[in-house]
Amino acid sequence: MAYPEDLLSQNEQVVVHSHPHFKMLIWPVFWLIVTVGLGVWLYTLVDGVTAGWGRIAEIAIGVVALVLVCWLFIAPLIRWRTTHFIVTTDRLITREGVLKRVGIDIPMSRINSVQFEHGLVDRIFGCGTLVIESASHEPLRFDDIPHVERVHTVIYREVNDNPYDDFNGEDTHPYRGRR
């Protein structure tokens, strides 16, 4: 889903729009599989119980499984889907939440430095943490940003408006020879 055009300033364009990396859904999917598997196993165990108690046990297993699936899988999935990280030509925008929305807008002119971090697991998944230092705030950390190095370079380019950077891996500076 693209960022709504009516929320952008005149001549402002979206450069990057992403959700956190899907790796934040690994544990919720694991718990979904465990909950469904355990629920099916318990359901087969109570299948031979006498009619009255067996029905109550089946309903209890179903209710507990439903609550666990909602809490351990559906809520993180909705949280992931409603978290947005957007870089435009004018600002960096984050939005998250369903019932309580939280957002941060940082004008590109207020960004002092951009850093990224990614350990071995993040490198395997192709994501990382972006650290933004703005003029009047403590550094902001944005975890699980997909393609963090590319996003880092895009933000650096937008902040410095430098058309001769190494974004494409090419040296296109007019005073240096092309590779």
In short:
With 179 residues, the chain is an alpha+beta fold. The chain contains four helices and seven strands, in the order βααββββαββα. The strands form two sheets. It has a four-stranded antiparallel sheet. The chain has a three-stranded antiparallel sheet with strand order 5-6-7.
Summary keywords:
179 residues, alpha+beta, 4-stranded antiparallel β-sheet, 3-stranded antiparallel β-sheet, elongated, disordered C terminus
Task: Explain what the structure shows.
With 179 residues, this protein is α+β, with helices and mostly antiparallel strands. Strand 3 and strand 4 form a beta hairpin. The longest helix is centred in the middle third of the chain and has 31 residues. It is elongated. The two termini are 38 Å apart. The C terminus is likely disordered.
Gyration radius, in Å: 23 Å
Rough outline: elongated
Strand order of the largest sheet: 1-2-3-4
In total, the number of strands is 7
Largest sheet: 4 strands, antiparallel
Individual helix count: 4
Strand content: 15-25%
What is this structure's SSE topology?
Elements (H helix, E strand, L loop, with lengths): L13 E5 L7 H21 L4 H31 L2 E5 L2 E6 L5 E6 L3 E7 L2 H6 L1 E8 L5 E7 L1 H13 L19
Antiparallel strand pairs: 1-2, 2-3, 3-4, 5-6, 6-7
